[in-house]
Amino acid sequence: MQQTLKTFILLTMVFLGAMAALARAEGIELEQRMRVAPFLMEGLLQVASGDLDGDGLCELVVLGRDYTEPQVLVHVLKADTESGELAQVWQSPNILEERSPAHLAVGAFLTQGRRLILVLTNNRAELYGWEEKQGYRRQAAYTHNIAPGEVTAGDLDGDGRDELIVARVAKTGLKHYYEQLLVYRVEEDELVLLSEGPVLGNIRAVAAGDLDGDGRDEVLAEVGKASANGEIHIYSNEGAKWVRRAEPVTLADGAVYGMTVTRGTEGSFVYTASEQGCLHIFRWTGSGLQAVAEKKVNLSLYSVAPGGFWADHWGLALLYYPNGLWVLAGPANPGIMALEEALAAKTKVDSAEPAQGLVPSEGSMPETGGEDAPLSVGGQAEAVPAGPDNPGVDGPGETVTAPEAVPQK
């Protein structure tokens, strides 16, 4: 018993030190705004953000699952205008589908500017939104046969409405799934398939954002085998055409299950969160992604969402295994550069210095992490046109139309 208690205390000190290390930087303070673990449910699945009530500030949306008494719920959190604390303002009904995963996307699916919450399971989908007099209500419910993998939302055609982007299994190999990207239009009574993208392999994360500022979002997919290092593939979509925008970016630090895109006055940035506890930030250069910052912590990260949760601060929400929510606030809005610099600071993660107000609970011990791992970024290569001699092979700027799967080695 004494040995168990000593181990618990030691792991707690390491956990607190990791939080304190990432939350501080030379000359820049990242304020911790949220108690981390455990949070709300036995397992957290995904985090997203968006201005759901139209007041100019983002809400934080968390999808979670309980296993003891089976249920899948969506939680909406909003910052209090006086204290700044994030508090739950709504919880969905149980949207559990037996023997099915659940996925979350936030986007302006039905009308321009009005952001809604879409939850998908293998055969069902439910759409929730905020109404001025009635609060959060279900807007629509769907049945489908999509059986989605990862999902996200993005305005791919520039019309002001977001499409639903889904990774779905196209074929099954001996050891791996080969998934492709699909685009759906969300209507009030159905999900309409618009486009089928390339078969890429085992897609572990998807994101969408306007990298080049042309008003159309690009689609990003992280692809890799099991928990091995993977690659980020970037495409733009125009109806049936999928155009690769850059050479794939080779990642380090294991599988990436969390990825998001932000765009502000400083340009476009891509954030990735890996199961080995590494948060990477990339900048879009116009022809590819350039690594600009990274930080490794003793946590297994798997979902990330940035947003303007406060009027004077910019925030970053992260999920870590199994049910931890961690929210940091940057010193300015949007604060991308400040956060980038803070993460780039080479602080140690083995300090025992506690973070103020952080109280980990038993049963939510962090994963152990290693030293910072090197990052490799794929360089710009000459385009290789797709054709009979090169099935499914495409370079930057080349159009792809339903290529065959390329087995991962």
What report would you give on this structure?
Strands 16, 17, 18, 19, 20 and 28 form a six-stranded antiparallel β-sheet that branches. The protein has a four-stranded antiparallel β-sheet with strand order 3-27-26-25. The N terminus and C terminus are likely disordered. Strand 1 and strand 2 form a beta hairpin. It contains two helices and 28 strands. The radius of gyration is 21 Å and the shape is globular. The N and C termini lie far apart (46 Å). It is mainly β and 409 residues long.
Tag the structure with descriptive keywords.
2 helices, 409 residues, 8% helix, mainly beta, disordered C terminus
Distance between the termini: 46 Å
Could you report the average pLDDT, rounded to the nearest whole number?
78
Shape: globular
Major β-sheet profile:
6 strands, antiparallel
Structural class label: mainly beta
Number of helical segments with 4 or more residues: 2
User: How many beta strands in the DSSP annotation?
Assistant: 28
List unreliable stretches of 5+ residues.
1-28, 345-395, 401-409
Level of helix content? Answer: under 10%
Order of helices and strands: HEEEEEEEEEEEEEEEEEEEEEEEEEEEHE
Roughly how many Å is the radius of gyration? Answer: 21 Å
The fraction of residues assigned to DSSP E strands is 35-45%
